[in-house]
From TrEMBL:
Pathway where it operates: Steroid metabolism; ergosterol biosynthesis
EC number(s) per entry: 5.-.-.-
Keyword Endoplasmic reticulum in annotation: yes
Subcellular location: Endoplasmic reticulum membrane
Species for this entry: Blastobotrys adeninivorans
Annotated InterPro entries: ERG2_sigma1_rcpt-like (IPR006716)
Protein name: C-8 sterol isomerase
Keywords, ordered alphabetically: Endoplasmic reticulum, Membrane, Transmembrane, Transmembrane helix
GO biological process, alphabetically ordered: ergosterol biosynthetic process
Enzyme class label: isomerase
């Protein structure tokens, strides 16, 4: 009876092991757990075959539970190691300094008191290209793409993307509002034109960021934010950049169905990451 039940109800990879384990009237849990934590099986005939089937599935559930606990422990350990590396060592791979980028932004903004966003963006781009050379992508109007993330929609131009950093122009011609996302990286949002308002969940009044201000969103934190029309920023993220990608891609699947933009964004990001890896830049 036990052999038949084990063959019928257990998944194929486990049939042979369970036929061996449940042969007779008892189950030896040592082969599964390394210690006897499952009580002996009552003698045959005392319970119906339904009980025997349930008993087998109970044992199988405990096996699955053990592997889930192992997996959870592995995830916790991996997270701790990644956080330790991020805090203590990851900065050695950075090439951008948020304070220096803010200086560049303020100098270019000061050169355009009329607040012309196009002139400011191009002025910042020229300065970045001059200072960082091939680490900054060549400018092409066709490389601007939509970005839908956290229920906010804007447009972006990828200036640099690598494993540990990305630098982009991000903004909106008509205004947007949404969730910043919660990221395994620090995010610095330097306003170049327009403004940004932001608020954590316990705020009663908004934080207001004007041209020249840098909004720092620390690793693991999140806020609600909004930007009015003709607002643009230079955004620097430093940390584990690949962990941010699902936030930027998920709404394509769940909402917009804009697979062309997804493919274009993936191509730009992948080409940049590989190009910088070949240069030795993580």
């Amino acid at each position: 009876m036990w052999n038949a039940l084990s063959i019928l109800v257990l998944p194929p990879p486990s049939r042979q092991n369970f036929v061996h384990i449940v042969s007779g009237n008892t189950i030896s849990s040592r082969d599964i757990f390394g210690s006897h934590i499952i009580p002996p099986l009552p003698p045959r005939g005392l319970f119906s075959s339904h009980y025997h089937a349930v008993y087998i599935w109970a044992v199988w559930s405990l096996v699955v539970m053990r592997w889930l606990l192992r997996l959870s422990a592995a995830v916790v350990v991996a997270f701790w190691v990644m956080e330790y590396v991020r805090v203590n060592y990851l900065h050695k791979a950075f090439i951008f300094d948020r304070n220096h980028l803010q200086v560049i932004g303020k100098e270019v903004i000061a050169q355009h008191p009329d607040g012309n966003s196009t002139a400011i963006l191009m002025g910042v781009y020229d300065r970045l290209k001059e200072e960082y050379g091939d680490y900054i992508n060549d400018y092409n109007e066709d490389d601007w793409v939509f970005n839908n993330a956290g229920n906010a929609m804007g447009t972006m131009f990828v200036l640099h993307a690598s494993i540990t950093e990305y630098l982009i122009f991000f903004g909106t011609a008509i205004g947007t509002e949404g969730h910043t996302g919660t990221h395994f990286s620090d995010d610095y949002f330097l306003i170049l034109a327009g403004n940004q308002t932001a608020a954590p969940p316990n705020a009663r009044q908004p934080e207001v960021y004007l041209p020249g201000d840098s909004h720092h969103l620390p690793c693991g934190y999140n806020k609600q934010y909004s930007m009015p029309s003709d607002s643009w920023a230079l955004e620097l993220a430093q940390g584990y950049i690949p962990t941010m990608l699902p936030f930027g891609f998920l709404e394509v699947v769940t909402s917009t169905m804009d697979y062309y933009t997804l493919a274009k964004t993936v191509k730009i990001s992948a080409v940049n990451i590989v190009k910088n890896l070949l240069k030795g830049k993580l």
